[in-house]
UniProtKB/TrEMBL annotation:
PROSITE patterns with a match to the protein in the record: LIPOCALIN, PROKAR_LIPOPROTEIN
Pfam families, A to Z: Lipocalin_2 (PF08212)
Family from the record: Belongs to the calycin superfamily. Lipocalin family.
GO cellular component, one term: cell outer membrane
Oligomer status and interactors: Homodimer.
Keywords: Cell outer membrane, Lipid-binding, Lipoprotein, Membrane, Palmitate
Protein name, as recorded: Outer membrane lipoprotein Blc
Its job: Involved in the storage or transport of lipids necessary for membrane maintenance under stressful conditions. Displays a binding preference for lysophospholipids.
Lipid addition sites, N-palmitoyl cysteine: 25
Subcellular location: Cell outer membrane
GO molecular function, a single term: lipid binding
InterPro entries: Calycin, Lipocalin_ApoD, Lipocalin_bac, Lipocalin_Blc-like_dom, Lipocalin_CS, Lipocln_cytosolic_FA-bd_dom
BP term (GO), one: response to stress
Length: 193
């Protein structure tokens, strides 16, 4: 019993620390981060596979990860993050967060919270074509964290390179970006976490 309580407290402390660090990363950089202009919230909601990111301790080592964004009755959004710790896992672990639009007229800029009271900025930098968008590029205004999402577990090399080029032009350290293994065959491969 005591061991389970300790493990639970350790996870809570790590999540709180992650939220603090994400909040610290949300500081205002010298050059404003431009958001995508063509974001339609209804098209953006749904399931996204995490194709790549700049690794940080809260997501480092997570496998087959994806997020789901959905509208809530209170007007905010569910921000649900699913992952596996091992490809031997038969079920996903889940973190539940909430997101909202500080300005409903700007659906590309969000506030995200996984642990109260720590909030982080979330900027949609680019979205792909298609009725539900094919890909998305997301970053923090500090340019310390970046994510590449896709509606499928893979993204073609040309689109991936184009998104990295766009992130580089915006001042993100793309040399730190690593792909997330979505299948066992990708685990341990060059360029993957």
């Amino acid at each position: 019993m005591r061991h389970a309580l300790t493990a639970r407290h350790t996870r809570l402390v790590l999540l709180l620390l992650g939220a603090v660090l994400l909040g610290a990363c949300a500081g205002t950089p010298s050059k404003p981060l431009p958001a995508a202009r063509n974001v339609d919230l209804d098209r953006y909601l749904g399931k996204w596979y995490v194709i790549a990111n700049i690794p940080y301790f809260a997501e480092r080592g997570k496998l087959a990860s994806y997020v789901i964004y959905r509208q809530r009755p209170d007007g905010r959004l569910d921000d649900l993050y699913f992952y596996k710790k091992s490809f031997k896992d038969t079920t996903y672990s889940e973190w539940k967060g909430v997101a909202w639009l500080p300005d409903p007229r700007d659906p590309a800029r969000w506030k995200v919270r996984f642990i109260w009271p720590f909030t982080s900025d979330y900027t949609i930098l680019d979205v792909g074509p298609g009725p539900a968008y094919d890909y998305a590029l997301i970053g923090l205004p500090s340019r310390e964290l970046l994510w590449i999402f896709a509606r499928t577990p893979t993204l073609d090399a040309h689109t991936y390179a184009m998104l990295l080029d766009k992130a580089r032009a915006l001042g993100f350290p793309v040399d730190q970006v690593k792909k997330i293994p979505q299948t066992p065959a990708e685990a341990g491969q060059p360029g993957f976490q």
